[in-house]
Amino acid sequence: MTAPLLVATVFAVGVLHTLVPDHWAPIVALARAQRWTLVQTARAAALAGFGHVVSTLVLGGVLWAAGATLATRYGHAVNVAAALGLIGFGAWIAYEGWREARGASAPHDERQQGRTTALLLVVGSSPMLEGIPAFLAASTYGPGLLAVMALVFAAATIATYVATCVAGVAGLQRVSLGAFERYGEVLSGTIVAMVGVYALVTA
Fold it and tell me: Is the pTM of this model over 0.85?
């Protein structure tokens, strides 16, 4: 493959892979439940995208050092762990939301930071396996091309994370759920868990 084609490949992977709902839907669901502003949503999405990029590049290094067989097994295990994390995290949100709606849990603000951190760790921990072969194919071109590909991949991934999450939240802000607002966190937790189940089935 030529150098421009390799760069175009990682750009396409960064955009298309991030459009899969199990990347942006959990953030949009939590942003809706927590009533985040678009700026807060964009910041959370950017952090998740950054984690996604780092985990992919780290896995690429593991692949290069350990060989394709071990790397494939490792990558699948990471995806399964991330999916289980989404299921557990979603169940936790739904349970705490139910308790809050019934007046049995801690105040809303005290739980927000912990939930945000947990979600970003889960969403950002799963690498993009599709991009790894392009990086391996570029290894013969030297570190310069690898650096350019890493930057393009990072920019495409993070920008897509931010765009999809902000667009999702902006769209939901125009929708009133009425009585369902009281149980918004129960609904958002259920959505996150369902996304985790989808990710687990397709891992």
Answer: no
